[in-house]
Design goal:
By secondary structure, the chain is mainly alpha-helical. It contains seven helices and two strands, in the order E-E-H-H-H-H-H-H-H. Helix 1 runs antiparallel to helix 2.
């Protein structure tokens, strides 16, 4: 592909600094890196994926509001984390993280553990407890 043929569909990546990197042939026949803002099939796949993640996050949010799950479950979903991944970020035990998905266990957490979770998600403790916005 020539450098001028690298797709530039700005639908999802256009307004951000995130770019895909492709290698294309320049006018002198050399392969050079070219930044791309994406292409339609890729962007459609991203849209479908993020829509599915959003739907699952909303279902978990409703579970939290109904008192069946802790806010930790919601934050794990929107940050695309599993208990194992969150354990690697926080240094906490994976089994403890699974236990903290229950509202009662989460409510009993001390400030230190809540702080570890909040730091891993890049939010403050109040956002962690309140789903990041007004409930």
């Amino acid at each position: 592909m020539k450098t001028e043929d690298v797709p530039q569909d700005n639908k999802y990546l256009g307004s951000t600094t995130i770019r895909d990197l492709y290698y294309a042939v320049d006018d002198s026949g050399q392969y050079v890196p070219v930044a791309s803002t994406g292409w339609e099939p890729q962007n459609e796949a991203l849209r479908i994926t993020w829509d599915a993640i959003g739907e699952e996050a909303e279902a978990i949010r409703q579970e939290v509001l109904a008192g069946r799950k802790s806010p930790l479950a919601y934050h794990m979903e929107i940050h695309l984390m599993t208990p194992a991944l969150l354990a690697s970020y926080t240094g906490l035990n994976r089994k403890d993280i699974k236990r903290h998905l229950s509202p009662a266990a989460f409510a009993a957490l001390d400030d230190y553990v809540l702080g570890r979770y909040a730091e891993a998600f890049g939010i403050d403790v109040n956002e962690l407890k309140s789903l990041g916005h007004e409930d």
